[in-house]
From TrEMBL:
Keywords: Hydrolase, Lipid degradation, Lipid metabolism, Plant defense, Signal. Residues 36-234 form the PNPLA domain. It comes from the Eukaryota. Lipolytic acyl hydrolase (LAH). The active site is at S80 (nucleophile), D221 (proton acceptor). A motif (GXSXG) lies at residues 78-82. This is Patatin. One of its GO terms (molecular function) is phospholipase activity.
Amino acid sequence: METKTLFIAICLLTTLKFSKPKLVSGLTKGKMATVLSIDGGGIRGIIPGTLLAHLELELQKLDGPNARIADYFDVIAGTSTGGLVTTMLTVPNKDNRPIFAAKDINSFYIEHGPKIFPHSEHSSFFGGPKYDGSYLRSLIRQLLGNVTINQTLTNVIIPTFDIKSLQPIIFSTDDAKANVFKNALLSDICISTSAAPTFFPAFYFETKDANQKTHSFDLIDGGVAANNPTLLAISHISKEILMGNFQFVDIEPMDNKTMLVLSLGTGAAKQEQKYNATIASKWSLFDWVYYKGGSPILEIYGHASSDMVDIHVSTLFQGPQCEKNYLRIQDNTLIGETSSVDNATDENMQSLVQIGEKLLETPVSRMNLETGSFEAVEGEGTNKEALSRFANLLSGERKRRQNQL
C-alpha cells in the first residue's frame, strides 16, 4: 500500500517538473507549502502533544497569544490517535477558532485516557476486542457534534481502512468539498481511524451523495494502511498543485525546496532482537497474534508501515538544499510500559510527557537510508531549536500571504 502511494507521489512530482500547473484565480503567492503529520499510537499521542504545545508557544512568541497550529499549515494529516489530535487542532468553535489549543491536548489525554483504556478490561481473544469503545465513541460524539470534515479550519487528511472492500479510505477536507458522500461526520471518521484491531470494534456508518445514493463504510484503524501519514499529505498537496487547486503557492516547477514538512511520531519500542526465524517458524496462528504479552503481526505491520514512509520521504528530501525542510521527530527507544499503546495509568502518562520533553532536547536526527536507523545530525542543534526555526519559517510564510490579501 505504501509503495503504491510512493509511486503516485513520485509521478506527481515528476509531472510537475515538466508542466506548468494551472493556477486558480485570485492566487495568493507564497514560497512554501506547509505540512504537519501526526502518527498513530494510542495513549502515546501525549508525545506529539508535548511537541505541538512547544511549537505553538514559539508561534505565539512571534505572532501573539491567539496564534494556533491550524493557522500555519496547509495540510494536517493524522492517523488513529493522530487523527484525533488533528481534529482537535482544526475543528472550529463558535468563534471560528480551534476548539483546542495545542497546550490542552495532553490535558485531554490525561483526563480521558483512563476511561478510554480502562485498566479493568482485558483481552479474551475469543470474546471481542479488548475494549468496547463505548466511552471513546461517546466522548468523540460529544466533542464534535454534527461537524463534518469540510468544516475544518485547514485541510485535514485522515486515513481509515475498509475491511469490506479491503481498500484504504482517505478522508480529506478537499475531497469532502468536491464529493458530497466523502463529507462524513468528523466523529464517524475519528471513531473509524481509531478502531485498532484487537483493541476496539470496527465501525460502520453511511453517507449519501448528491443524488441521495447511500454509501456505506466498514472501517478500522487507518494505521494498517498509513500509521505515518506524511506521504499521504505530500501526495495530496502535489495532486492539488497539479490540478491547479492549490491556492497559496505559485511554483514553476514544483520541487522539495518549496515544501516544509513536520512529521511527529508517537514513539516506538527500542530496537532489539525481539524475535528470530527459529522462534517464528514454530508459531501457530495464535502465536502470531499474541506472543509473550505482545502481538508480533501488529508490531511488524506497524513498524514496516511507519518506517517505509520515513524511508520514502527521507529519500525525497535528500540533498543540501532541501533536507532541512523535512523534520521527523521520533523516539525509537521506548521500553517497558511506555511502549504500550493503551497503558493509561497516571504514572505512564506522566512518563510519556517526560519523553516528549526529552525529545525537545535531543539532537535533530535523520534516517540513515543504508541502515534504517536514526542518527544525530551535526550542526543542526536540538529538536527544540529546529522547531523554533520551523516556527520562524511558518510565521514568515503566513505573513507573506496575508500581506498580499
